[in-house]
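Fill-in record for PilZ domain-containing protein.
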Amino acid sequence: MRRAARHPVDFPVIAEHRDRGDLSLHIANISAHGFMVDNSEGLDRGERVIIRLPEIGRIEAYVIWVREERAGLQFERIIRLDDFTRMMDVLQPNPRLRRGR
């Protein structure tokens, strides 16, 4: 059972991978606990990456699951609600897409 609501986004990021260097990933949805990419670049379960998010900065995440081209990653720490809200204002500029606060 999911711990937090997923918010749809369309956000490309450059992920830093320890062995493979920089990877271009596309975040399709995000929550305070993690995110899903729809172009997993061959990531495997357990691998770690570092990404940079608006209002949050650099944050580490590790791969929880992989299915075909999608992968779910969990942040190494939960994003605080006020920081998450500010980030979503940048990632979802259209207020119709934002969930109620």
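KEY FINDING: The helical segments are 81-91.
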